[in-house]
Amino acid sequence: MSLTVLAKTSEIVWALLESYDIDPLPSFEDAGIDPALRNHIGARIDQAKMDKLWRNAVERSNDPCFGLRAAQLWHPSYLHALGYAWLASPTLRSALERLVRFTHLVAQATETSIEESDDQLIFSWMNHTRTSDDYWHANATMAILITMCRANYGDDLDPAVIRFTHAQPERTGDFYDLFRCPVEFDAPSNQLIIAKQAADKILPGSNHLMEQINDQEIIKYL
Which of 52, 86, 105, 178 is the most buried (most CB within 10 A)? Predict the structure, then answer.
């Protein structure tokens, strides 16, 4: 059985290409992906096809920081009910724990975990089917993740550290501009590290009823 990803996430690639004034349709056709799937709630796409789509899009954009621009385009609907459950989470800790619990809703090959130090929460994720050459996936995922955290917490959230498994690119300014913290490369895993104080702050969007409703939708889907 092939590994799959949520088809709705391909909407990010479509929107990214349009942001460069590039017609997305040829990239989808080249990857063998029906572009209509991006509007079908719950549809899934073979991961190999999605990887090919991203690779084609990066090449056509000629921008090594292509993935980072995903931060400007995230919408909760791209993650099915998980996006809305995330927004209703009472803390960033609970939101990240929810993401660990339901990671395979988004991508079956991705593994996530949470660790703690004395004063920090460490969220790690890896997709072992991809190589570090596929750096755009890591960049886009981290860009979306920090955007999701700031959507809940507020734009003043600055992580303690961001880590990537891929090598340091020639252009690092875009990374520091987006993440506003130290960024490390060639790390053992991709990591978002935030202070426990920030992770446990009660958030204004907390809504237990919406958490429950959307969690049940996720469980039903899975």
Answer: 86
Question: What is the SS3 string spanning 168-204?
Answer: CCCCCHHHHHHHCCCEECCCCCEEEEEEHHHHCCCCC
CA separation for the pair 182, 175 (Å, rounded): 9
Instruction: Report the interhelical angle of 135-153 vs 47-61 (nearest 10°).
Output: 90
- Environment class of 170 (CB within 10 Å of its CB; exposed 0-12, middle 13-18, buried 19+): exposed
Q: What pLDDT sits at residue 136?
A: 87
Q: Would you tell me how many other CB atoms lie within 10 Å of the CB of residue 95? A: 25
- The pTM of the whole model exceeds 0.90: yes
Angle (CA) 159 13 32, round 5°: 140
Residues facing 162 on adjacent strands = 183, 192
- Rg value, the chain, Cα: 17
Helices (H) and strands (E) in the chain, counts: 10, 7
What's the pLDDT at 134?
Answer: 75
CA–CA separation, 4 and 43 (whole Å): 10
